[in-house]
Each structure stands twice: as C-alpha cells, then as structure tokens.
Amino acid sequence: MVLCACLVFPFLVRAQKPVPVLTPEKMLADAQLLKKILEANHPSLYWYNTPAQLDSGFNALLLDLQSPLSEIKYRNRLSLWVNQIACGHTTVRFSKKTAKTINQNRLAGFPLSLKVWEDSLVVLNNYLGRLGPVQRGDIVLSINGVATNRLVDTLKQFVARDGQAYNHAYQVLSNNFSDWYKGVMGMDSHYTILYKDSTGLVKTAVLENRAGTPEAWKKQLDSIRRSRQSPTDSVRSPLVVSDRPSGTRLSTRQARLLSLRQLQIDTTRRAAYLRLTGFGKGNLKRFFRQSFSALQEHQIQHLIIDLRENGGGRVNLSTRLSRYLVQAPFKIGDSVVAISRKFKYGRYIHPAWVYWWAMNLAGSKDSNGLIHYKRYEQHRYAPFTKNHFSGQLYLLQGGQTFSAATMFIATLKGQHNVTVLGEETGGGYYGNSAMHIPTIRLPQTGLRVSLPLYRLVMDAHRPKGRGILPDVDLPPVSWAIREGKDRKLLYAQQLIAEKKRGAEAPLVNKEE
User: Fold this and answer.
1) In the sheet where 92-93 sits, what is the strand order?
2) Angle CA(22)–CA(25)–CA(29) in degrees, nearest 5?
3) Of all helices (H) and strands (E), which one includes residue 510?
4) Dist. CA 331–CA 322, nearest whole Å
5) Helix 177-185 crosses helix 148-156 at what angle (to 10 degrees)?
6) Per residue in 315-344, pLDDT tens?
7) Do the Cβ atoms of 430 and 452 come closer than 8 Å?
8) Do 425 and 455 share a structural domain?
9) 347 and 459: one domain?
10) Are residues 339 and 482 in the same domain?
C-alpha cells in the first residue's frame, strides 16, 4: 500500500520492482522492540483495549511472523496489531527505500478509482475512460468474487482510526483505492467486476490491470489528471465565481495557495464560501485576517467553511480561526497529558531531542509523574472583537476531517448560529493522541511508526469512541457521484436561500 495520495505518475510502464523479503528474526526483533517503545511512551495505549487484549493480539502477530515475508506483508500484519490501539495518529509506514520502490510501481494496479463507504463501492473514474465498460456512478457489487461488504470490512482494518470512527478509513481508501487494494489483496492480471449500471442492470466486466493496458492508460493520464476530483465528494461546486478576471493565468504560487485555501464572496446574497485543506501551509494567519476583514467589509451574513479535505495541522492555527467565530471563551481541552518525557528507547525515536526540549519547557509534572501541557488545559481563548463573524455559519465535514480540524468543529458545534453538515468526522469527538508526533524507526526492517506523545481529552463529558456526528447527515449516494453534484454544498446553499426567505429548508431527499 502507498499511503501518500500524491498524483505523480510516470509516463512509461515500468516493470514492477521487487520489495525486500524479511527474515523472521528481523521481523520478530522489530515487533518486540516496537511493543516496548509503545508501552514506554504512548499516552493512550489502553484507551480502547485492555493490556490483556493487546497482548493477545501481539501473540497472534508473532505466530504470523514465523516465515519470511515481503515488507508489504509485514507492514500489513504489524498494522493490524497497531490499529488495535485505535489511535488515528499511530500509523505504520514502509521503510524509506521501499516507499520509493512502491511509488515507482504505482502505475500497475487496480483499474478503477472507487468511492468507499460502509458496505458500498461506487466508481469515480475508470482508468480507460470511455473505452471501459464500467462508468462513473456505477455501483460495484463484487470484485473477483469477493462481495463489496466483505471487501470493505477487510480493507478498513488496515487504516489507523480514532476509536470506532471508521468513516476516516472509508475516506482514506477512497483517496487511493487502487494502491490499498493492491497492497492488501495483491495484484492480478485481470479483475472480474460485478456491478450495477445507471439503469439498474446488473452486469459483469473483466478488466485488465493498468500494466496490462499501457497504451490506453497513457492516453487517459492527462484527461484523468485534469478531471480528477477529490473523493471527498464527486465535485467541488464553489459558491460563486472568483472575482479574478476571466482568462488571467495564476502564477505557480497562486495556484499552490488556491489548492490549500480559498475564499469566495457573493455580495448579492451576502454569502461566502471558505475552503481549507489543512491547518498548516498557506500563510493562514494572514489569510484569516484578510478573509474576515473582507467578510466584514461586504457585510456577509452567511459563511460556509468546507473542512472535508482538512486532515488537521497546527493547533494554534485552528484555534485562531475559532476565535473569529466563537461567541464565548474556550480552552483546548480538559486534559493534555503525556506519560513520560524521559524518552525511553530514545535512540529509535526521531527527532527525540527536539521533543524532549519541548516537553521539558512546556510540560509540568504532577504528583503522579504525568506530564501536563498546562497552557492548553487552563488558558481560555477569547473571541476576537475585530472582524468577528456573528452571522450564520455552516461547517462541512467528512471522514477526512481529522485532528485539529475536528477540534475546530468541536469548539463550535452546538453554538446557536452553527449548523454542521456532512458525515461523521474521522477525528475523535472526545479526544485524540497527538500534539507532538515523532517517528519510531525500527532498526532491523526500517519500518517507520508515528508516535503521538500527548493524550488530549477535549471534553470529558462527551461520548468516547466516535467522531463528531453532523447536525444534518448527508452520506454519499451514487446518483450524486454519477451526476457530478456536491450534495453537501448544495444543501448548505439551499439552507442559505431558505433562511433568507424566512422558511425552513426541506431535506435533500433524492434517493437511489
């Protein structure tokens, strides 16, 4: 599996490069070392399982490591055990060398791009375009005789998650179904697809893998890259057309920033659409300041904030955005706790010294020896008075909404002028383990494991184990994918129109 969702495709079909085969001795040594490092440093190891349950799963893992395995299979088996922790920030990645090899092998694989949720698979793209029999919006019923519900249930176990918030796994699988399928199920020369087309007829198609159709694949590369939409929704439908004059070209920097964040304003309807793909890059502090100044200048009454592609980032930036919108002071969490700052096995944790300094400077030890991030536990952030937005706010969320993005929505959910639309977030509503996240490098195999150091409980009174549930649940549907409609954004626009007329908005109820 390739966890990176970048779209860097070679233009020539390459032979599949082999990945390393690991000996049982190396795999067992690294597995046992990883368990010791997690037990010594992970703050939430037993949030969702008892020590006995994790030990039982680990013993089962050891039995699976008695024969040589490829690094892909070893990573899969190790992930199944690590994912029992149910921490979305604790993930197992390939060694750097193998990750590079797998990225070079990405051209060959499953020939369909699919949207995944619960027990459903719907076609987003056919890599043969119009040449292929299976088209956008078709519902996949089985692949190589494996029913969709069974296949999804298998694949989702390999994706890290917060508690039982599996909607994150569905979104991660949707982002790159081909590589996840190949990594878990292996690669075949042909795939037998049982599917239902747009007329409701059940059909069968036999598709070659992408390496088996190089000429057709190469012809489709440019068109797919131009038309490919985020699997978060079938199409992104901006609220208004940009003020940029028609025909003007964006610079490379402008295009990059637009891919990270954008604000569009409809002065006629006094409504705006703000899209954020993360709380990290994009000079966001300045962007927020300019955006809310513009909202104030144009007397905007309705604001849609789209966080469906937002996997999180820096807490100080998500907090800053919250301060333009909240109506009462708030704090980051009820508790922000690490179990140690001694960094036992620190030579395998990188960069340990950076986080050691951070935890010693910002952390305070209590009587039980736990390390508390006191500022986040005690400091209350007041709303901004300048350019504060007090109109109607609509937050769009989904399975890819994670970490700091979940914290942002959790701060605003329940406020009288806020409506949350979409699907359950991938990030936990009760809390998560994050803040500082160094990397464990296993010495024998080179595999890398992310290690969160702080356990954050945002609100101890919230239910534990799930993401944020929306006020208006709008799950994916095949008709919207087929027709290229952004159901969630259209619903938000409908709410704005109905509220401006002083009426309650009807539900979007067109069903399959």
Assistant:
1) 92-93, 448-450, 439-441, 349-350
2) 105
3) none
4) 11
5) 90
6) 999 999 999 999 999 999 999 999 988 888
7) no
8) yes
9) yes
10) yes
